[in-house]
Amino acid sequence: YDTELYETKPCDSNVCFEALHGALGDCSCNVDTIDYFNNVKIFPRIQSLVSKDYFRFYKVNLKKECPFWADDSRCAIKYCHIKTCTKESVPGYANGYENEHELEAPAVKYTKEAQSGCSNDPDLDLDLGYLNTTISAASQYEIAKWKAHDESLEKFCGNDDRDAEAEYVDLSLNPERYTGYKGPSAHRIWRSIYQENCFRPKLNPYESFPYVLSTDLSNMCLEKRVFYRAVSGMHTSINIHLCSKYLLSEKSVGFAAPPEGEWGPNIEEFQRRFDPSQTLGEGPNWLKNLYFVYLLEMRALAKAGPYLEKEEYYTGNPTEDEETRLAIRNMLGVIYTFPDHFNESSMFSGGSQAANLKEEFREHFWNISRIMDCVGCDKCKLWGKLQTQGLGTALKILFSATWDNPESDAEQSPLSLRHRVQRLQRTEIVALFNAFARLSNSIRELENFRILLNSNKQTNSRQNTFGGPRDAVDNKMNVKKEQCTSGGSKPRLGS
Ligand SMILES: Cc1cc2nc3c(=O)[nH]c(=O)nc-3n(C[C@H](O)[C@H](O)[C@H](O)COP(=O)(O)OP(=O)(O)OC[C@H]3O[C@@H](n4cnc5c(N)ncnc54)[C@H](O)[C@@H]3O)c2cc1C
What we know:
It is found in: Endoplasmic reticulum membrane. About 50% of the residues lie in helices and about 5% in strands. Helix 3 crosses helix 16 and helix 9 packs antiparallel against helix 10. The longest helix is centred in the last third of the chain and has 41 residues. The radius of gyration is 25 Å and the shape is globular. The two termini are about 15 Å apart. The protein binds flavin-adenine dinucleotide.
């Protein structure tokens, strides 16, 4: 295909952002509305929320074997390493929140103890009302299988929660940032996600090309487009984080540099990844996909809001737990006011064909969550698993029938809050909010890059006019004078 089309355009420092306005596509929302809403209203709230103990500790199994191929990679730099926590250092662990699933299991509602409150009622004739609930062992075994089957239909991704090898990780000690993970191992992951586990246009004019071109998206139905755009948006977010927290200098240049190296935004890296002239015009579309997946996850939070508002957020510290509940209600209250939420009701509507497509959609995402066990860098794997689980939880909320009326269970439950039907595991809730926080942070980081690129452009033009010295900050930010020359740089697409 004609690469010249894209290469002739000279690289302007702000060209990544020129196309990042207006309609988002596949929804009625636009980029500018999300920008403002996120940066002003959501970003400060969600960042403060995920710093709370409940959201800081994520249980994950980073030792699971890759089910698809032998892991052949090693962390490129020492910053890939993960610091795990001892169980005792996790707030509330000693008080047994690990066992809360058992406490909250629906079966508890039917124990003698739970029902004993009724026995004093004079109108209640226990003999007449006797219900024989005996079920043979064989039937119980079968029913357990049905339950497992029904539950698996709801799941869009795996959950390590009960794995013996799962460990708690304090996310605040392991920030998502540049790790140096790249090359064949990283490419194999992305390629197998897009090539084997994303829907592709039926008539793909670039058979050998593993990724989907935005121009081909119109050949796909809405559901398949949504899937691709959600995954691509997550990919964008991961890559924005590595650009915004890039390792600028390994060792201290001056005495004031921190021992862990110096981290900050790398404009050149950002442009390499998103500038249209270096991505066959795809960069701005990938950026738009970030907004798209943000919209999906925000809609999931709004839909599950009534359920999430009633969650306990237990960590064993009553003051902290109450603060968390208040912060959740406050943030959800703001999310409810968003004027242009994604409308999932237009998806998967159309008989058995739609049901099959939904099942395919779920299976594809399930596979992507398993591919995360093949990531060859622990820190990337941690954040890859968390963000996939967060997105999988959002998809489950949006597309599982049982989520169409999330309030009803909680309202009908005659027992206390703890005994309502548990729809989400702790790790799913932690992943859902943290994944959304990552997307929110990426959108905020885009604003930083926009400002840096603008000031860079002004400095360049001033320098061209007056020949003045280059701003010292630019050097620190890894900005090179000739950022990209037209036609000279190889497009990255499909590398
Ligand atoms: C799950 C996971 C987590 C990772 N986490 C980190 C991390 O925390 N820190 C870190 O430094 N590195 C991380 N990486 C590596 C990082 O994402 C890149 O793979 C790596 O930096 C190499 O980049 P690249 O330029 O070769 O293109 P890649 O990002 O590897 O992309 C491969 C190809 O996909 C296409 N593409 C790129 N972006 C998009 C998009 N948004 N949508 C659709 N197609 C696209 C392009 O054609 C590109 O050539 C992670 C990788 C994976 C798979």
